[in-house]
Amino acid sequence: MPTILEAVDILHAYDGAIALDHVSLRVEGGEFLTILGPSGSGKTTLLRVIGGFETPQSLGTLVIAGIDVRGLPPNHRPVATVFQHYALFPHLRVGENVEYGLRVRGKDPQACRRKAMEVLRLVRLPDKFERRIQQLSGGERQRVALARALATEPALLLLDEPMAALDEKLRREMQTEIRALQRGLGTTFLQVTHSQEEALTMSDRIAVMNAGRVEQLGTPTEIFERPASRFVAQFMGMLNVWDGTVGAIDGELVRLDRATGSLWGRWTGVRAPALDLPAFLAVHPQKIQPAAPLPAPAGAGQNEVFGRIRSATYKGAETELLIDADLGPLIAAVARPHAVQGERASFLWSPLECAVGPQSA
After folding, report:
1. Nearest CA to 212 among 65, 357, 57?
2. pLDDT per position in the chain (361 positions), as tens?
3. Cβ atoms within 10 A of the Cβ of 214, count?
4. Helix, strand, coil shares of the chain as percentages rounded to 5?
């Protein structure tokens, strides 16, 4: 598939504060790419620059579907945007909202109506053409916003936190629906979100942003299992993070040495590891399991930590254990704890299930 978006060296600041720090991004045709990051990371600013709603201080290249869009207003770019609060016109009926983008482009009214009916069927609202926006549920309003964007047949569809206003159940349903729709149409989607679950569920690739930079770009599996920086590891839920230095290297496995002990993990940094390099080791709580109520020998190649359970919090599908471990504080999420609060136990996990990388990117 051809490249749909080529953005190179975008620099932007607000009142001297850097929002985009020489950001570059490429999106391929038919891809669903999510820009993920916390508030203030620059993700929405990047989307606004691509859509033409923000003019950066400097810009190397910005090409969408083969068109150099530098200096072009939003309505002259081959893009459409679904905003966080949908931006629907309350005085217009559903069909009129969907037709709006076509009508301002001077399309024939009958052609506008046919196209509106077509995209409303796509989003499963075929009987809502004459409804008022106020008569729709939150999920239906989101579908109308999506239909309005798709009606113009954009080369690139931009989604700015499109599910932020929905409740959890509806949000999960819409994640599945939007992803299925994108795959069926083959349209290129670029989404902004702060939700790790949303990004992992919907995306072909994820760009994790921090402080105006893209910290890591990769598949959901790469971002979740192989974070390249300490920030990405913690942002993606690796709540157990220890600092130390590289004490040994064995292929892709690296030993992190600390004053309180050593742990092995898989190197995930961009550059190669080196002995004595300051590094971090991180592991998801779900990867850690108690071995037994009493200390037990670790399995072959396993990391083993001993500690006393400070608290056990039931969370439905799992129980979260807070452990005062010999190596430092530890969090484990287990289906069925083998020890109770106050007991000392052994905790194990595989080096292949934790990440080791440089302390500074």
Report:
1. 57
2. 799 999 999 999 998 899 999 999 999 999 999 999 999 999 999 999 999 999 999 999 999 999 999 999 998 999 999 987 778 888 889 988 999 888 888 788 888 899 999 999 988 898 999 999 888 888 888 889 899 999 999 999 999 988 877 788 888 888 898 899 899 999 999 999 999 999 999 999 999 999 999 999 999 999 999 999 999 999 999 999 999 999 999 999 999 999 988 999 999 999 999 999 999 999 999 999 887 544 444 444 689 999 999 999 988 889 999 999 988 899 999 987 776 788 888 899 999 999 999 987 6
3. 21
4. 25, 40, 35
Residue 33 near residue 204, CB atoms below 8 Å: yes
50: closest CA among 110, 86, 7, 83?
7
Instruction: Find the angle CA(53)-CA(57)-CA(59) to the nearest 5 degrees.
Output: 85
Q: Which residues pair with 312 in a beta bridge?
A: 321
Distance CA 334, CA 318 (A): 5
Which helix (H) or strand (E) covers residue 17, if one does? strand 17-28
Task: Give the angle 48-51-54 at the CA atoms, nearest 5°.
Answer: 45
Phi then psi for residue 329, to 5 deg, are -60, 145
Integer Cα distance of 270 and 110 in angstroms? 55
Q: How far is Cα of residue 225 from the mean position of the Cα atoms in its chain?
A: 13
- Taking a C-beta distance cutoff of 8 angstroms, is the pair 2, 67 a contact? no
